[in-house]
Structure formats: C-alpha cells, structure tokens
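note to self — DONT lose this again. spent like an hour looking for the file last time. sequence + predicted structure for the chain T wanted, 322 res
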Amino acid sequence: MSHVFRLPVLAGRVEADVPVAADHGRGGDGPGIVAGYLAPHPPHLVYAENPPQNEPRSTGGWETLRWAYEEVRRRIREVHRPDVIIVHAPHWITMVGHHVNCVPHVRGRSVEPIFPHLFRYDYAFDTDVELAEAIADTAADMGLVTSKMRVPGVRVDYATIGALHLLNPEWDIPVVSLSANNNPYYYAAAGLEQMETLGEATRIAIEQTGRRAVLAGSNSLSHLHWDTEPDLPEDMAAEHAWSHKQYAADMVLLEAIRAGRTADLRSHLIDEHIAATESETKAGSLSWLLSAMDWPEVPGDVLAYGTIIGTGNAVIEWEPTP
C-alpha cells in the first residue's frame, strides 16, 4: 500500500543532472548538510519560554529540554552557520504525496488546535525558493508524487513553527518546510521507505544548489499522552512518563542513537519503537532526517530527554561524516 502514491522512477535522470558536491559534510565553510537535529515541537516548550511572538504567558517549565535548545541555538550560530534550515513536520499532513513550501515570504498566526490556550504564535519567515523547488523536482525524478505549495497566505502548521522557533527564534535564516505524507496513519501496511527517498532527494538538492544546510526532524518519540492537564499547565509535579513501558522503549532507541548504531535503527529499531509506543516518528521525520545524512554511523549527541504531557521528547544532534 505504501507504493500507491509513488510514480515509476525515471532511470538515470537524477544521476545525470546532479554535480558532485565540492565539500560535503561538517567542518569548514563549504556546502552540504552540516548538522541534523531531532527537534520535538510540543507547544509547551514555546509557551514556557514566553517569547514575544506567543500570546499566552507562563511561569516556565520543561527547563531541561529548553536548555538543550539554547545549546542548539548556540551551535547553529557559532559552529554550523547554515544558509538554510530545512524542517520536516508531522502536522503539515498531506494525504497524497509530498509537498514543499515554495511561498517566498510567509507570515501569519499559528494556533495549536488542541492547546490554543498555550500556542497562539505570530510568525514571519523567508523561504529558500530555489532549494525548495530543487527538492520537489528531485523527489519527483526519484518517483515520489510531489507538489510545490505556492498558495499566498498559506497557514503554516504548529509543528513547523514550533521547531523553527526553538532552533532559531530570530527567524533570520531562510527556511524550506516539507510536509509529512501521512498515509502510514491510514494504511497499516505502509512503511517509511518514501521518507528515505525524500531524504535522499533532499541531500541531492542541497548538493546541487550548493547550500550549507541544517536539517530538523520535528518529531517527539513515544506519543501516548494524558487527556487532561493540571490547572497550571506548567505544573511539573504532574509531569511524568505516560507509562514505564513507553519510557523504556524510548531508552532502547536512545541507547542505539548514542552508540551510533544507525544501521540497526534503519533495519528494525525505528519500526519496533513505533510499534511499542505509537511514536510520532511514524510520520517519517526521523527517517527523512537520517536518510538525508546517508544514515551516518556516528553517535547522536542526546542533549536532553524529557516528558511533555507524558510523551517522550529528545533533542539530538548528528553531525554527518565528511
């Protein structure tokens, strides 16, 4: 069923059109993917920070995860210095194919539909249209059904906005945002292989356009959560894992990431984790992210792990091998 929305591959076309990158990978000032982040987007993290763009006010909360994002912001500015941030988010849901935002200037208000009392955020950012179009074209060449979003005034989902704010609250780095084709949520036999292809297309397009890119997979881990919240949303006395089984499954995944067992993640661990925890990675952001970096056999730097309304959330950095 996962092949329903996939077109026949045009043999040889992609390879013929793509030049070899001059300086792929970390280090130096050359182009390529310089870092990838698992960047969970729960609106609570933005709410707890009290940025001027978000209307609701809080007294704090979820500090360890927010401190990890502060370190990520430092690394992006001082170490990685990207031309663009590319984000794949599970709440830009497309039922047919993979969409790429190609609107040059994006502005609006994002409201989280389940937690509107926590997230009413005014955003404005620029899109790297050349790169966005290159990703869409390359993915199409590789057999994926794709579409270039060109609707002025498009309202951007909160998972895209939340992750981008947490990575770069100044919003002064151009963005490419990708949808999550969510047919895995509706067809039990569907897999994540299309996300791997989309990741490969993303890497090729980055090399083709000579960009220096940071990637962000906007996913939580375990995803069963409470259906009520305390009177004070940031009451940390009420915050803990939804179940020990869910927490333990998150730890199995994180231990593999910390050990650099990326081949095991690809072959079975991501699928097993999804089955055990209803993980949000089912939407494909983690698979897209690791595939774009060519499944690097290097340890992921787990900067923090914490629960938010019972879900598991980890901020992780990978630096792809040169």
